[in-house]
Amino acid sequence: MKNIKVLGTGCANCKTTLRLIEEAAKAKGIEIELEKIEDLPQIMSYGVMSTPGVVVDGTLVHAGGIPTREAIDAWLTEASVNDCCSSSGGGDGGGCCG
């Protein structure tokens, strides 16, 4: 089971990201452990300066803006997330890995 954390203080984009991940996992029949992290020091510990951030199995895969459904699907189906900033990893291409 994948552990997915959505990092953000509660903005609309963070809530939308959480909902999209839930919907994608349900549609694929994939069981996930989904957490919402709103504690600012904890969010910053991942190097996230722009929310929402998404962490899959301990690896930051996205920061800033709502992720695409394609990116979410990739996170759910990949055995492990190796390159969060590549287009296949769904990152923003702008150094989201820190």
Would you mind describing this structure in some detail?
- The chain has 98 residues and is of the alpha+beta class.
- The protein has a single domain (2-77), classed as Glutaredoxin, CATH 3.40.30.10.
- It is 33% helix and 21% strand.
- The protein has 3 helices and 4 strands; from the N terminus they run βαβαββα.
- It has a 4-stranded mixed beta sheet with strand order 2-1-3-4.
- Strand 3 (53-56) and strand 4 (59-63) form a beta hairpin.
- Helix 1 packs across helix 3.
Write the layout of secondary structure elements.
Blueprint: E1 2-7, H1 12-28, E2 32-37, H2 40-45, E3 53-56, E4 59-63, H3 69-77
Parallel strand pairs: 1-2
Antiparallel strand pairs: 1-3, 3-4
Helix pairs in contact: 1-3
Descriptive terms for the model:
disordered C terminus; Glutaredoxin; four-stranded mixed sheet; globular
